[in-house]
Amino acid sequence: MVRVGMADMNICTAPEAITTLGLGSCVGIVLYDPARKLAGMVHVMLPDSTKIIHNENKAKFADTGITELLEKMIHLGASRSRITAKIAGGAQMFGFHNASDLLRVGEKNVEATKLQLKELHIPIIAEDTGANYGRTIEFYPETGELLVKSVGKEIKRI
Predict the structure, then answer these.
(1) How many whole angstroms separate alpha carbon 111 and alpha carbon 125?
(2) pTM higher than 0.85 for the full model?
(3) Pairing state between β 18-23 and 2-4
(4) Nearest CA to 38 among 28, 30, 47?
(5) Is residue 19 pLDDT above 60, yes or no?
(6) pLDDT tens across 31-44, in order?
(7) Which of 23, 26, 62, 137 does the annotation list as catalytic?
(8) Of 63, 64, 84, 139, which has the fewest CB atoms closer than 10 Å, so is most exposed?
């Protein structure tokens, strides 16, 4: 199992699988070329790199992490025209009566992820986002299946 940490990215091919743990407000994005059985995953923490000064970690942000992952996959032989996406995470982990923009990080991460994928013309074929609980995800390039695991919930297969 290939691991992806927080604000990190990695790539694998079948028969390997790829995982990231502890998606709360963060979003896990899987890019997948089914013909090559090549998958990449990025675990983004924040929506917009332009709001942070002097941060070189592209994987930390939706706007730069997805593009960087796409470039790495194409370099390894993925076909841009075949790549699809599956996304999970973006939870609102804490309830507030009047959630300000600063507290809506999960929602903003999902919005930024969807916008970036749209701009790159990558279709989202499945998602499990929002709500108020954390997720761990595992992606299997052999089958194209994304498992979404959450404490006290059934495993979702998307």
Answers:
(1) 16
(2) yes
(3) parallel
(4) 30
(5) yes
(6) 999 999 999 999 99
(7) 26
(8) 84
User: Does residue 26 have an active-site annotation?
Assistant: yes
Q: How far apart are CA 158 and CA 156, in angstroms?
A: 6
Among 10, 15, 29, residue whose Cα is nearest residue 128: 29
Peptide bond into 15 cis (omega under 30): yes
Pairing of strands 18-23, 135-140: antiparallel
Best CA proximity match to 65, nearest among 43, 90, 87, 81? 43
What DSSP line would sit under 83-147, residue for residue? Answer: -EEEEEE----S--TT--GGG-HHHHHHHHHHHHHHHTT--EEEEEE-TT--EEEEEETTTTEEE
Contact 113, 66 (CB under 8 A): yes
Q: What is the Cα–Cα distance from 105 to 103, expressed in whole angstroms?
A: 6
- Three-state DSSP at 9 gives strand
